[in-house]
Amino acid sequence: MKIVLDTNVFIVGFLSLATGEDCAESRILKELLEKDKTLILSSELEEQIFRVILRVKDKDFAGLVRHMLWSDYYIEFVEISGKKFPVQWKEIIPRKDLSIFLTAHFGNADFLVTNDIDFLQKAKKCKPAFLCLRPQEFVAH
Asked: Which of 25, 36, 40, 42 could form a disulfide with 13 if both were Cys (CB 3.0 to 4.6 A apart)?
C-alpha cells in the first residue's frame, strides 16, 4: 500500500505523537511504521513539511521529525519536477497543492490523505488512479 500524506496530516500527526494525543493523523503515522506500507515523498513535499514545522515548532523538532521519517518509515522517493502531466490539472488543483497531487500521481499512490477539504474535492475532480481521503476516512478504510 502506497500513501501520500498532505503536509497538514504530517504536522498534526507528529505534533500529536509528541504530546501523546490520539487522533487519526497520529494513528496513520503509527500505522505507516508497518513495513507493508510505503510512504511516498518528493523533494517538494519534504521541503514543504519542514518549512511548516519550522514555522509552528522549532529546528530541533524539525530535525527529530526528519530523523524519524528517514529511519523509521519505509519511504519511496519520487522525482516530480520536469515531468509531464495533464495540463488541466494545473487549472483544477490549487498551486499550493499541486506538488502533493503530483507526488501521489507519479508515485503510483493508492491513497492521498489530506485535511484540506477544498484540495480533496478538487483532487477527486481529476479522477486520479488513487483514492483521496480525509484522515478519519483513511483510518476507517
From this structure: 25
C-beta atoms surrounding 117 within 10 Å: 9
- For 96, the grid coordinates are 499550493
The kind and range of the H/E element at 16 are: helix 7-19
Q: How far apart are CA 105 and CA 100, in angstroms?
A: 9
pLDDT, tens only, 27-83: 999 999 987 899 999 999 999 999 999 999 989 999 999 999 999 999 999 999 888
> Sign of the CA dihedral 24, 28, 31, 37?
positive
**Grid cell of 140 as nine digits:** 476507517
Angle made by CA atoms 128, 132, 134, in degrees to the nearest 5: 170
Which three three-digit cell numbers place residue 85?
502531466
CA torsion sign, 87 to 92 to 95 to 99?
negative
